[in-house]
Amino acid sequence: MTLTKAQLLDSIHKQVDLPKIKSTKVVDCLLELIKNTLENGEDVLIRGFGKFCVKEKRERRGRNPQTGEDLMLNARRIITFRCSGRLRDKINREG
To answer: What is the pTM of this model?
Structure first.
């Protein structure tokens, strides 16, 4: 099951007892801060959760799978996520 933004907002509303409007503002501000930081090429580290990293991919040769035609793929930036050891242990805990 996927956790949606609406479920996240509802959970914050119930657990922290914030009004839904303030919960929405908190989540939106947090996501905007993360997006802006990554857009500037900086990494985002959340202790106990993980690290979002911006990686540079160089220009490289590729192939169109439908036609088999060779082409050049442009250089681009991608986002990777590496979970913390604590989160990895929690996910893999047998129980």
So the answer is: 0.78
